[in-house]
Design a protein that fits this description.
Strand content: 15-25%
Strand order of the largest sheet: 42-43-44-45-49
Shape: flat
Number of helices: 39
Structural class: alpha+beta
């Protein structure tokens, strides 16, 4: 499915995790997947992957037997072994015989069906997959690190252990150990058998072959090579069971670098014995070098460094696995390393053939350089940036890696627009920097950090304060970064050490904003640098004009966080596309907005956009990235969490293709700058993939059921991870990570990546043994020594017995009440000795008491006389307490230690002990004040920490309050999500205006808003005096009730602008459901929305009127009495309702002018063919309202222009019935009404005269068709059914509308209409030669452009048949080849057929023709191009048709029509239609 791909990095610290088969297919484990790569001496290509394990793949091996090259085995940390068919990518067999983590696996070179694996507990499992039989052996109780099956004896397996021992076992004898090979001091990393069974002569030292003459070994089981962490490679004779050679790794000093003294800690020594080379082995070295050893030579001649002819060929970090195979006529060696590169070596020349880069983390960002063509930068979660020269001829994977000063996941990238090699990057820890890709210098980093992940970067023009400097003091471009905390910084690329500026300050100052700004989540500068689009967390998009960042418009279409924004490219030949803004959010819909009117003609107040130009639906999860094709107009690719990439035709709102090659969620996408058919995508499967649009079999994204199945498959994996977390420290609260760019969204990182990157950080694998013991020096007096000689029990012996008794104690429940544990167990136990010893104690005590300064050979309270400490002085008691405390500590009875210290008055010591051991209690805390205030305060703080570890946060906060640490208690509760309790505490103990209280409300509101609890969040905002935010959060749900509540709230809070905006949104939602009463009710509360109320009034009247002829087919949920259809003309009826129901005073010109200005500010975009009929009628209503207001102002020029716009909207979208009914409503007297309007125009107003001419033409146009249909219905219906229309306008006939046949119209009206149609003035209006000239020129230009597109498509896909040439929307020409009962109307008469593109036409010739006709078009008067006009050629054909069939047209008019067709109707399709209709 893909063209090229960078796979995930091979797993580290595995003895055999990659292998090559005889067909040149490399397999390696990466995370829990196996990747398959086709290798040759020239290059590598990723073939696919094997997915099925739920945890990390720890081993991989191919079957090397003839005919079985497509079979392989894998082992995993999920304790399973699977057998695969790589062609079918299916599991053939599996077993789960291991109970511990599997560390190694190998496929027997002799026994075709045998797979041997070992685990960390020392179990070896033999699996004969053909008969599904497993046998387990336990040769040694040691951790297995590696194993290798003998190629000479099917029963022999060599096993390497962690402690450095190697065991040769016989599996036919239940794993009996044949030889134990000792010599290595540390873990065995790899084992490799000699490919020849004979043990030939090797060069060895005398001590290596003490019992063999001249270093010759006996013929036996073959040589075995082993690599160990002790920096040696050893060669063993398996026939004799001893070592024959030791190879010490050479210290290879790299240029410009010394030997790292700690290099041993990072060593992984793998060995490989190539087939056909019994005297040569390959091993890894300290820093990633590979060494070829010649076992027949000595000294420095013994080893040769691979890739020594040129710098940069070797790996830069340690190598883990090697495997070789003969591909063609060359023997190739494949190596995998910690530097995340796979290298291929030619074993004959020892030179590197190629390098395949791999990725060790999520691919967060992709960016093509606008200057260095084909240079693709990759931002990856393995803390590195890669720059891939995708156009390299010699090396398809020519990649350079940058890692200096990054130290975190690279989440955002942006090339400088004009400076070559300058690449900006952002990281997960908030860092922003700039790399110079063509120098070896470390990057420059900004001194200003984001507090969370950097979501996006973009270069744009400098804005204040950077734009204030002179031309030499300011950069031509500034770097803008958006972080997860919702802030956008402007960085000076010339001075990154300076503090970056927050653009929110400029936005507030310019737009006079007092309320809190919504957190920003993405930004995108328009390519011309004049406009900045900013996406926000609440789903809104704000568009600002540079450099002052004046707010031009706000887009409120999304209801979830904005993840990505992109402007359409500027090199399109259609200027109307330059202002298209694509946006993707955490919902599954992509919206395209046409912001041309707001950008090019900004109004004084910002425009609110609530309707999209196009909406692209099909994805089933959050949108994470999108990119416009630089080669097409309005071609967009989007990527999503559903794991697919989708290409869209935006203008048609149609999917083009869907790519499903990734195995995880997609995070980024880029369109190739040189090939219009190639797209690049990256995701959380650790891969970047290049794929062709034309080669995809799917057109749409998969349905959501597929995602449910994927989640079910991943369910066991998640459970395992939760168990792992539970096995850690108990009592600690764990939180689940959300997605990548996650909120910490856009990005966020998953558990799979964390696992791999933890491996990346853990470069050192240390095995340490911790030995604990208790040694205590005890001085014995003479009495003790005598007792030991006489066989009596000493104090130490009794102490030991006491410890053993404690160990034997079991917590058995008894009916009797257990005696409490003694506080003085040592001295108590001394009272249970024989009677003679107890009496001797009395004598000893008497001697001590009456010594009077004399020397006594005993120390009461210690040693053998510990029990006497209770009967002598205080010093003896303290000694006894000291020994009793030591005994309690050893037994873990810390509470007894604390009580002993309390008894002897050491309260501070008791508290210190309890603090150290985490054994503080409420009782001890109550005693702490006896030691003073400071001790008590410290003890409370320690107890608070202890309670926090035990997750008793409420109790901990209460203790903080007891020491008057109110703010700390509040912070503690807030940090652990106890917002209610924190607010209760703050309200009860702090001042009402304390900022901490507001911070609590705002923090809780943010959490509630994120979780979807909008009502409670609004209460928090209200409590914090943030009414603006309260209204916005309630409106976030977007339903009618929420919008109405939010509008009323904003009005109560005095936020009039927000209240107006929300009321208007609510009214539009109600309008879509045709609830007209509710529409006026919600707007009636807003005094300044009178203009909108009048528009909705017109819309309701219009809907009711159009329901009579059947143009409107739906029913209204509610309506006003004044909207019922009457016989009154429509425009006077509108004025009457405005005056009677809305109190509009027509004589108050100031009010009328204010209304006119308000209506002008309402967004009124042009009509499109895909626009829903309800939305179209709302725009028509606005045009009519503007016309009525202009009439009230006596501005008849504007009134006529608005009437024309209202009439032509139906014509522009192909709805002929709507156009005809609008003519009937607005101009009930037809041409007489138009003449009346013309009389009221100002003398010399040419613009209005042209407008009236177009209006007159459309009246004639619809009368023409009504007359034609009337004759067609009465004379010959078959003639009407022979017409083939070529434009997109539907007529009443095609729509099944029989309004033209109504018998309610009087015969006199029909005759009058017929007389008008027969009049010469009627045809003079329609047969306008200037308009015919304009339309013919436009047809020719579009025809040539279509041929150019077809020519380009033909050359880009020569293997595919030529597609049918599409048509441009809104084309009004004539082609009459199709039956008239089709779905097209009278304006559909041009675009159905086009002549095929001549093969001989050249691209330059076609471009020259387009240029010539464009000049001709530019020379025509502007009024012809500005105002719509019916298709003149179409009218000519209808005229000739009517004359032919009905014979009622004057002869000179037919001649004129024929003349116009001969002059302007010469295009192929038009000429064919003319011939068919008139001949």
């Amino acid at each position: 499915m893909h063209e090229r791909a960078l796979p995930a990095s091979p797993n580290w610290y595995c003895s055999r995790c990659s292998d090559v088969n005889r067909r040149g297919v490399l397999g390696f484990g990466a995370k829990n997947t196996v990747y398959l790569v086709k290798v040759s001496a020239a290059s590598a290509a990723v073939l696919g992957e094997l997915s099925g394990h739920t945890e990390r793949v720890s081993g991989f091996a191919f079957c090397q037997h003839d005919g079985q090259e497509n079979v392989c085995a894998t082992s995993s940390d999920d304790k399973s072994v699977k057998i695969w068919d790589i062609e079918q990518k299916a599991v053939l067999a599996e077993h789960s015989a291991h109970q511990s983590t599997i560390t190694s696996i190998h496929w027997s070179p002799v026994e075709k069906g045998l797979v041997v694996s070992g685990d960390e507990k020392g179990i070896v499992v033999c699996f004969w997959h053909g008969r599904n039989d497993t046998h387990s052996f336990f040769p040694e109780p040691r951790t297995i690190f590696c194993l290798a099956c003998s190629p000479h004896n099917e029963n022999h397996v060599a096993v390497g252990y962690k402690d450095g021992m190697i065991a040769l076992i016989d599996i036919s004898k239940k794993g009996e150990v044949i030889h134990r090979l000792r010599g290595h001091d540390e873990e065995i990393h790899a084992l490799a058998w000699c490919p020849e069974p004979k043990e030939e002569d090797l060069y060895g030292r005398p001590e290596d072959n003490t019992d063999a003459s001249n270093g010759l070994a006996e013929v036996g089981g073959g040589y075995l090579a082993s690599g160990s962490r002790d920096q040696t490679v050893r060669i063993w004779s398996t026939a004799r069971g001893k070592g024959v050679m030791t190879l010490k790794l050479p210290f290879l000093k790299r240029r410009g670098a010394g030997v790292d003294p700690g290099v041993k800690e990072r060593l992984w020594l793998t060995v490989h014995w190539p087939k056909g080379r019994p005297s040569q082995i390959v091993s890894s070295c300290f820093g990633g070098e590979l060494v070829m050893w010649d076992l027949t030579k000595s000294g420095k001649q013994k080893w040769t460094l691979l890739g020594s002819s040129a710098d940069g060929q070797n790996h830069s970090r340690i190598v883990f696995n090697m495997s070789s195979a003969c591909v063609g006529d060359r023997e190739l060696l494949i190596s995998t390393s910690m530097d995340r590169e796979i290298k291929c070596w030619d074993l004959d020349t020892l030179e590197c053939c190629w390098t395949l880069p791999t990725l060790g983390g999520f691919v967060y960002s992709l960016s093509f350089s606008p200057v260095g063509t084909g240079c693709l930068a990759l931002g990856v979660g393995d803390n590195m940036i890669r720059v891939w020269n995708t156009l390299s001829i010699h090396n398809p994977y020519d990649t350079k890696t940058y890692w200096q000063s990054i130290k975190s996941k690279v989440t955002a990238l942006a090339w400088h627009p004009v400076k070559e090699g300058s690449l900006a990057f952002g990281t997960d820890d908030g860092k922003v920097g700039i790399y110079e890709a063509y120098s070896n210098k470390p990057p420059q980093t900004s001194s200003t950090y984001h507090r969370r992940t950097v979501y996006s970067l973009d270069w744009g023009p400098p804005i204040p304060p950077l734009s204030f400097g002179g031309s030499g003091d300011k950069p031509s471009y500034s770097l803008y970064s958006c972080g997860g905390e919702g802030v956008i910084f402007q960085h000076d690329p010339w001075k990154l050490s300076a503090e970056a500026s927050n653009i929110d300050k400029l936005i507030r100052d310019t737009n006079d904003i007092k309320h809190k700004l919504s957190p920003h989540t993405d930004l995108s500068w328009k390519p011309d640098g004049k406009v900045l689009a900013v996406g926000n967390e609440d789903g809104s998009i704000e568009v600002y004009g540079a450099p002052s960042l004046k707010l031009l418009c706000t887009v409120q279409q999304h209801h979830k966080i904005i993840n990505t924004l992109r402007w359409h490219h500027q090199h399109s030949d259609q200027p109307e596309l330059h202002c298209l803004l694509a946006s993707g959010s955490s919902s599954a819909v992509v919206y395209i907005h046409d912001l041309r009117s707001a950008v090019e003609n900004p109004s004084e107040s910002p425009v609110l956009v609530t309707e999209g130009f196009r909406s692209l639906s099909g994805h089933t999860n959050k949108i994470t990235g999108l990119a416009w094709s630089p080669h097409h107009d309005a071609r967009l690719v989007t990527v999503c969490y559903d794991g697919t990439a989708q290409v869209w035709d935006v203008l048609k709102e149609e999917p083009v293709c869907n790519y499903r090659g990734h195995s995880g969620r997609l995070l980024c996408v880029q369109w190739s700058p040189v090939d219009p058919d190639l797209v690049w995508t990256g995701g959380d499967d650790f891969t970047v993939q290049e794929w062709a649009v034309s080669k995809q079999e799917h057109a749409r994204p998969p349905k959501s059921k597929r995602r449910v199945e994927l989640e079910k498959k991943k369910a066991p994996q998640k459970k395992t991870k939760k168990k792992k977390k539970a096995a850690g420290k108990g009592g600690l609260k764990t939180e689940e990570n959300e997605s990548p760019m996650g909120e910490e969204e856009k990005g966020g990182s998953g558990a799979d990546e964390a696992q791999s990157e933890d491996e990346g950080e853990d470069e050192e694998r240390e095995s340490t043994t911790v030995s604990t013991g208790l040694s205590k020096d005890t001085s014995m007096d003479r009495c003790t020594a005598e007792k030991m000689q006489n066989g009596g029990k000493s104090f130490l012996a009794m102490k030991k017995e006491l410890k053993e008794e404690r160990k034997k104690e079991k917590p058995e429940l008894s009916l009797k009440k257990r005696k409490p544990r003694s506080m003085l167990p040592l001295s108590t136990s001394m009272d249970h000795r024989p009677k003679e010893e107890l009496q001797q104690d009395c004598l000893t005590l008497a001697a001590v008491r009456h010594a009077h300064g004399g020397s006594v050979n005993c120390v009461p309270g210690s040693g053998e006389h510990i029990q006497l400490g209770l009967f002598t002085d205080r010093e003896a008691l303290c000694r006894m307490f000291q020994e009793e405390e030591a005994s309690h500590v050893e037994a873990g009875h810390y509470d007894s230690v604390m009580y002993l210290r309390l008894w002897k008055g050491d309260l501070i010591g008791a508290l210190h002990m309890a603090t150290e051991k985490g054994e503080l209690t409420d009782h001890l805390l109550s005693l702490a004040p006896m030691a003073g205030y400071q001790v008590w305060a410290r003890t409370v703080e320690a107890y608070v920490k202890q309670l926090c570890l035990q997750e008793q946060f409420l109790k901990a906060a209460s203790h903080l309050v007891s020491v008057h640490k109110i703010y700390e208690a509040i912070s503690l509760l807030k940090a652990h999500q106890f917002y209610r309790e924190a607010i209760a505490l703050a309200k009860g103990r702090l001042q009402p205006d304390d900022p901490a209280l507001k911070d609590l409300y705002m923090s809780w509101a943010a959490v509630l808003e994120k979780d979807g609890h909008y009502t409670t969040a609004a209460k928090c905002y209200l409590a914090a005096d943030c009414s603006f935010d309260a209204a916005k959060v309630i409106a976030k749900k977007g339903d009618v009730m929420s919008l109405k509540t939010a509008a009323n709230l904003a009005k109560l809070a005095g936020e009039s602008d927000l209240s107006h905006s929300l009321s208007l949104r609510c009214a539009k939602e109600l309008m879509l459901s045709q609830d007209w009463l509710a529409v006026q009710d919600i707007l009636r509360t807003q005094d300044t929305l009178l203009g909108h109320r009048l528009v909705f009034c017109v819309s309701e009247l219009l809907t009711q009127r159009l329901s009579v002829p059947g143009v409107v087919s739906w029913s209204s949920a509610s309506s006003h009495a004044w909207s019922k259809p009457t016989e009154e003309d429509f425009l006077p009826a509108v004025q009457r309702v405005w005056q009677s129901e809305f109190g509009l005073a027509t004589a108050d010109l100031d009010q009328i002018k204010a209304l006119h200005q308000q209506l002008r500010a309402i967004e009124n975009p042009p009509a499109t063919a895909s626009m829903p009929i309800k939305q179209l009628l709302s725009h028509v209503a606005l045009d009519m309202a503007l016309s009525v207001v202009s009439q009230l102002l006596s501005d008849w020029g504007s009134a006529v222009e608005e009437l024309l716009r209202a009439v032509t909207r139906g014509f522009e979208v192909g709805h002929f019935s709507l156009m005809a009914e609008m003519c009937q409503l607005l101009l009930p007297q037809g041409l007489d009404s138009v003449a009346l309007c013309k009389q009221r125009l100002l003398q010399g107003d040419e613009r209005s005269l042209f407008v009236s001419q177009s209006l007159e033409a459309f009246v004639c146009y619809q009368l023409l068709y009504k007359d034609w249909w009337k004759h067609g219905c009465t004379s010959a219906t078959t003639a009407a059914n022979s017409i083939k229309h070529i434009n997109a306008h539907q007529t009443p006939v095609e729509n099944g509308d029989t309004n033209h046949e109504r018998e309610t119209r009087s015969q006199s009206e029909a005759q009058a209409a017929e007389a008008i149609v027969r009049s010469e003035g009627f045809w003079k209006v329609l047969l306008s030669e200037p308009h015919a000239n304009l339309q013919a020129t436009q047809r020719v230009i579009k025809d040539i452009q279509s041929r150019v597109a077809s020519l380009v498509q033909q050359h880009s896909r020569p293997q595919e048949p030529q597609p049918s040439l599409g048509t441009q929307p809104q084309t009004h020409s004539t082609d009459l080849d199709e039956e008239p009962n089709s779905s097209e109307g009278p304006g559909d008469l041009h675009n159905k057929q086009r002549s095929s593109v001549a093969d001989s036409e050249s691209f330059p010739a076609l471009v020259a023709q387009v240029t010539e006709h464009q000049k001709k078009l530019a020379a025509l008067p502007d009024h012809l191009k500005k105002y719509s006009f019916p298709d003149v050629a179409e009218c000519c054909i209808v005229l000739l048709y009517m004359d032919k069939h009905f014979g009622l047209i004057p002869h000179h008019l037919c001649e004129k029509a024929t003349s116009l067709l001969l002059k302007y109707g010469t295009t192929g399709s038009l000429h064919k239609a003319w011939q068919r209709f008139t001949l």
